[in-house]
What we know:
Layout: H1 2-24, H2 28-45, H3 51-85, H4 90-93, H5 97-131, H6 137-165, H7 167-175, H8 177-195
Amino acid sequence: MDHQLWPVGLTLSLALVYFAKQWFWPAPATRQHEQLRLDWLLSLSATPGTEVLGVQTIRNSLMSCTMTATATTLAFMGSVSLLYNSWQPPAAALHTPTLLSLLAILVLLGLSFIFSILSARQWHHAGFVAGMPVGSAQRQHWLPVGHTCLRKAGHYYALSVRLLMWCVPLVVVGLFAWIGLIAALVLLVLLCLGLDRFHQL
């Protein structure tokens, strides 16, 4: 069965390498979007009457996190149902490529859900700062905390979305090894050349 397992292992290796790179050397888009959020909060803090606008923008971002968390939860429940409906004796199941890819998908979905919740938590805290009256002493006091929350919220949300995207090649590789491996390579190229790049207008 080793010749059937290595496509799954290689796909997982590509995902691990990508996330290690993203964690230690964030993509240009990640850095630029982080600066965009910080500049946004500074701009709001210098413009009276924008408190409602700030809270509404935070609410939109919070809804995006909620949608991602909901999608991962439904996918997780479906994966668990498939896992237990086709359960085999442990000795045979441990060497099944489909089962290995399914377990990997469960891990990715679980991590995506966790990071979505962490992102929602940070957006929630940032909303309190964005809603404080402009020019108030309390807003100036909590502004650095708001910056930190925005930075973490964006970072966690980016991770949750990318984790969810990597489930696609793992689903395919569990069914069709070579097609799934090609899908993983294509996804890696699209992430590095598309999603991770910052396109200056």
